[in-house]
């Protein structure tokens, strides 16, 4: 089951339109979409390690542009989206992002590229707090770029050996992932 899914994902990752979809996902994730671009960047870099650096640059550029949309949402429409932030469970993360901005400003955005807090929360908070737009773009490019180039670099470094190793262990990886998701759901339901 997992072997065929893995091969299908790699086939989709080699699709000629896959970079467009990666750019669209990266853009959307920085402003409003919940799925991180890593879910596409990783298999695409794995399917074509020579293109890993180009894919990381594409992901970074689209993410920064999407971050500007998130900044605009925070700057112009925070009051309108506040109920959604609360409803979707982002309000606490938004408050944390605001606190980080109050303490560290530029550095908060830079670190946000690697943070477990969704990046869109930082882009919206940066706009809501009217962060310097040039500083925001620079910090976004460095933070997000650092993350995506690190991911792409590790995949490119592993290359074909990594792809074969994953394929050999894909069943174990798949069942471990299913178990982790089940545990996470159980913990969420127990701690609610």
From TrEMBL:
TM spans (from-to): 20-43, 55-81, 101-122, 134-157, 172-191
Coiled coil: none
Pfam families: VTT_dom
Database matches in InterPro entries: DedA_domain, VTT_dom
UniProt keyword annotations, A-Z: Membrane, Transmembrane, Transmembrane helix
One cellular-component annotation, GO: plasma membrane
Residue stretches making up the VTT domain: 36-154
PANTHER family named in the record: ALKALINE PHOSPHATASE LIKE PROTEIN, DEDA FAMILY PROTEIN
Protein's name according to its UniProt entry: VTT domain-containing protein
Organism: Methylomarinovum caldicuralii
């Amino acid at each position: 089951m997992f072997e065929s899914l893995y091969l299908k994902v790699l086939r989709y990752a080699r699709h000629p339109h896959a970079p467009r979809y990666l750019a669209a996902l990266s853009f959307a994730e920085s402003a409003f979409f919940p799925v991180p671009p890593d879910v596409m960047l990783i298999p695409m870099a794995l399917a074509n390690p020579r293109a890993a650096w180009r894919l990381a640059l594409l992901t970074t550029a689209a993410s920064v542009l999407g971050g500007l949309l998130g900044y605009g949402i925070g700057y112009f429409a925070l009051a309108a989206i506040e109920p959604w932030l609360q409803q979707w469970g982002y309000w606490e993360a938004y408050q944390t992002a605001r606190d980080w901005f109050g303490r560290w400003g530029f550095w908060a955005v830079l670190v946000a590229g690697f943070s477990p807090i969704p990046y869109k929360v930082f882009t919206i908070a940066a706009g809501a707090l009217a962060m310097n737009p040039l500083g925001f773009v620079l910090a976004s490019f460095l933070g997000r770029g650092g993350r995506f180039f690190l991911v792409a670099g590790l995949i490119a470094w592993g290359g074909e050996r990594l792809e074969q190793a994953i394929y050999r262990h894909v069943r174990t990886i798949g069942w471990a992932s299913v178990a982790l998701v089940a545990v996470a759901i159980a913990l969420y339901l127990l701690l609610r």
